[in-house]
Specification:
Blueprint lengths: L7 H22 L1 E2 L2 E2 L20 H4 L1 E6 L2 E6 L4 H6 L1 E7 L2 E5 L2 E5 L2 E7 L9 H26 L1
Antiparallel strand pairs: 1-2, 3-4, 5-8, 6-7
Helix pairs in contact: 1-4
Length: 152
């Protein structure tokens, strides 16, 4: 009796693992598969020179899961999508004090529009497509070997 050759669960599981590893490596490389991220104008808290890594919470919060016939990446950090895609956002600025020409004055609470440069770490890329092709080829080769054994 031939084995069941429904390879989709195994392919999706392997894609989830491989792509999660590849996207995590983008943080280490400080870019999206060789395209370096826009450098910071100022250092982060604690003087960190790395981009998108201050505490590591966003990097650790990325999850990959198999849903339907695909792999979906999510994050528990609301700012992850803004960093990945870039765009504008509104920031609340609390009241504070400033000094100018030796005089101290109070700045009222206000909002400002900020532009976040795209620092993509998850998405489509030729290396992603190559990895998916390699996974599919591996599983199809395995099925081909199994079928060859069955027909002999």
């Amino acid at each position: 009796m031939p084995k069941n050759h429904d390879i989709m669960p195994a392919v999706l599981r392997d894609m989830r693992v491989k792509l999660a590893e590849m996207f995590d490596n983008n943080f280490r490389r400080q870019g999206f598969f060789g395209d370096k991220w826009t450098p910071k104008k100022v250092l982060s808290k604690g003087g960190s020179t790395t981009i998108l890594i201050v505490t590591g919470a966003m990097r650790r919060g990325i999850r990959a899961s198999v849903q339907g016939n695909g792999v979906v990446f999510t994050s528990d950090k609301p700012y992850a999508a803004l960093h990945n895609e870039g765009g504008q956002f509104r920031q609340n600025v609390p009241a504070h004090y400033r000094s100018r020409a030796g005089r101290r004055y109070r700045v009222r609470t206000h909002t400002r529009t900020m532009k976040m440069p795209q620092r993509q770490f998850i998405g489509d890329h030729s290396q992603v497509r190559e990895a998916i092709t390699a996974i599919l080829t591996h599983h199809l080769d395995r099925i081909s070997r199994d079928l060859t054994k069955i027909t002999r």
